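Researcher: Structure for this, please.
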Amino acid sequence: MRPGGAALWLGAVGLDLAFGEPPRPLHPVVLMGRAIGALERRAPSSDAAARRYGVVIACVPAACAALAGLGATRIPHSPARTVVALWLLKSAFSLRELVLAGTRVERALGEGALDRARVHARDLVSRPTGDLADDELASAAIESLAENLADSYVAPLLFYRLGGLPAALAYRAINTADAMVGYRGRYEHLGKAAARLDDVASFVPSRVSALALLAATPLVRADTGRALRVALRDHALTESPNAGWPMSAAAGALGVRLAKRGHYAFGDAVRPAAADISRARRLVVLSAILATVVVLATSSRWQR
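Model: Predicted structure, token format:
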């Protein structure tokens, strides 16, 4: 099993497209989340100690995930090793469920079922959705599709290509820790290390994702020049140093305004609708395909 080999990744993608996410009791990312949650519950109360303990929350699950991936690659050659490796690698990324989550919001908006759209939007964003208008729900769905192209697909792909299964799983653990504790307020000190580590790990993938979105714009008859202009102009509007790149590129490509109240607004004045979610889904899927082809086609020298 060659580290970062194309065959295993393509097999995991096929598994994702055919079956989606593993059952929760068997999902490695769910297990990561439980481990991070157990560590979080034991966190000290003082700010200084919480900052130090936050390093544990950020690094220990990532190290354990990497060791699990390494252990899978050390299983003697057998069908069992392939099955375990495919299962673990598939858990490191998600494409089908991301697209389906966007589809559910799109259909609900298209049917005028605003309350149902608000419920489905919770699968995509962490912000409160109970009072979001239809254009805000469409915006939230498109933002999540673009951002998760980076976090949920391109980043695991790049880490896998560079360091094989252990690296892909380590990234997923880092990203999970950031999603659970890496934000201000309650986790201001405890989540600092997870947030910073995720910022570093996602720096290149977010920009590669923006480039993939730009490259895919002609395939959906979108405006490449406008996508580039908006990405260069608006990418720094988010608190995150990374999230703004794919979201602003998508806003420019689709010619819509993507906004989160009190936080950012990408693009120009046109408010998005359900049809724009459909265009965003096609754009994201084509971007994922282009990224896969380019990354897997790179030379073994770059891989090493």
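Researcher: Any notable elements?
Model: The mean pLDDT is 94. The beta strands are 258-260, 264-266.
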